[in-house]
């Protein structure tokens, strides 16, 4: 397992033992609303999703990270953040989801900067993309903070979403925030 740290976060590569945490996360009211159209996520659905996620890690050497906030010496699980192959393109799709009570404090962008930099430094992928549901102003603001640019609306999983992207060069030309540590 890879473990990395930023100023306020500990990020670990996803593993099978994270399934119980993911079941709780995927059934958080905000996560259900914004990612699963208010459909409760079963243990079976999360298990299948985790299997797909682990295959991404085996294929690329990166994927979605489990994100923990450093609080008084005890890390607290707050969500997941990372990138995966987008369909059969050479693009990486970025996404993060955090528990409802953990959003709005800048932890998402902190995790995003780490996961994007890690993926770009460990691959030859040229573009990061993201889809945001219509009306999710908080996610759009966060996407802009990390450098994604709005490029129009596109269908995503049968729903019209806001489409964002940034190239490798655009991201890597940004000033470095800090050097993160990995074990």
Describe the model.
The protein has 183 residues and is an alpha+beta fold. The chain has a single domain (3-182), classed as 3-Layer(aba) Sandwich (Aminopeptidase), CATH 3.40.630. Helices cover 34% and strands 34% of the residues. The protein is built from six helices and nine strands; from the N terminus they run ββαααβββαβαββαβ. It has helices spanning 19-26, 29-35, 43-60, 107-121, 137-145, 168-172; strands at residues 3-5, 9-13, 64-71, 74-85, 91-98, 127-133, 149-156, 159-167, 181-182. It has a nine-stranded mixed beta sheet, sandwiched between helices. Strand 4 (74-85) and strand 5 (91-98) form a beta hairpin. Helix 1 packs across helix 3. The longest helix is centred in the first third of the chain and has 18 residues, at 43-60. The protein is globular, with a radius of gyration of 15 Å. The mean pLDDT is 89.
């Amino acid at each position: 397992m890879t473990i990395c740290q930023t100023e306020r976060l500990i990020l670990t590569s996803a593993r099978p033992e994270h399934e119980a945490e993911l079941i709780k996360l995927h059934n958080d009211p905000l996560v259900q609303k914004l990612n699963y159209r208010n459909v409760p996520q079963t243990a079976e659905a999360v298990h299948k999703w985790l299997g797909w996620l682990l295959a991404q890690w085996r294929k690329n050497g990166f994927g979605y990270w489990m994100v923990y906030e450093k609080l008084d010496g005890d890390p607290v699980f707050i969500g997941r953040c990372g990138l995966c192959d987008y369909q059969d393109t050479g693009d990486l799709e970025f996404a993060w989801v955090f528990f409802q009570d953990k959003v709005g404090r800048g932890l998402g962008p902190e995790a995003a900067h780490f996961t994007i930099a890690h993926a770009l430094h460990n691959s030859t992928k040229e573009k990061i993309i993201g889809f945001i549901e219509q009306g999710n102003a908080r996610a759009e603001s966060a996407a802009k903070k990390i450098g994604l640019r709005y490029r129009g609306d596109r269908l995503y999983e049968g729903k019209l979403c806001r489409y964002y992207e940034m190239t490798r060069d655009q991201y890597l030309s940004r000033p470095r925030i800090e050097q993160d540590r990995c074990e």
